[in-house]
Amino acid sequence: MRHAYAGAAVHVDASPERVFALVTDWPRHDEWMFLTTARATGEDTVEAFTGIGRLGFLDTMTITRWNPPSEIRMRHTGTLIRGTGVIRVRPDGDGSRVVWAEELELPFGRAGRALWPLARPVVNALARHSLRTLAALLSQPPGNGAPARNVS
């Protein structure tokens, strides 16, 4: 199976602990991840729905690495989205650098491989948009929308 790579990075004016807490607060994904709601379905499993109303897709994931506050790695196990995703958080000056990277198994065979060059810029732009929204949310002091703790 051919793999595709996508990702984005952003500086966030918040500590790695605050960033990691929000990134892993699944019910709050709708506040920063584009058109996505998420929830824990088990101790190490998460599902996220991306779309509007019933039009969209379900992304099921298994957490394969949990290293607060620096890294979470997921294995996408759904029918449409398969592969590995990682979010890394590193200290960066007075804040953090957040890197979101995906190694995806392209669906739809030859058609998926042919369409990826058109889809990749859109996927990367949506990842950048989501991370910028995350950064804006975390630029608020704790208690004004940014979490001080992790809620599963």
Describe the structure.
This is Polyketide cyclase. It holds the Pfam family Polyketide_cyc2. This protein is 25% helix and 43% strand. It has 152 residues and is of the alpha+beta class. It has a single domain, classed as 2-Layer Sandwich (Alpha-D-Glucose-1,6-Bisphosphate, Chain A, domain 4). The chain has a seven-stranded antiparallel β-sheet with strand order 1-7-6-5-4-3-2, with helices on one face.
What is the CATH domain class?
Alpha Beta
User: In DSSP terms, counting alpha (H) and pi (I) runs of 4 or more, how many helices?
Assistant: 2
Named CATH topology? Alpha-D-Glucose-1,6-Bisphosphate, Chain A, domain 4
Helix/strand-derived class? Answer: alpha+beta
Number of domains: 1
Q: How large is the share of residues in beta strands?
A: 35-45%
Task: Label the CATH architecture.
Answer: 2-Layer Sandwich
The count of DSSP E runs of length 2 or more, i.e. the number of strands, is 7
Low-confidence stretches: 148-152
Shape call: globular
Distance between the termini: 33 Å
Spell the H/E element sequence. EHEEEEEEH
Q: What's the pLDDT, averaged over the residues?
A: 94
CATH superfamily membership:
START domain
Report the radius of gyration as a whole number of Å: 15 Å
- Major β-sheet annotation: 7 strands, antiparallel
Order the strands across the largest sheet as they lie in space.
1-7-6-5-4-3-2
Helix content: 25-40%
List keywords for this structure.
7 strands, 7-stranded antiparallel beta sheet, Alpha-D-Glucose-1,6-Bisphosphate, Chain A, domain 4, alpha+beta, 152 residues, Polyketide cyclase, globular
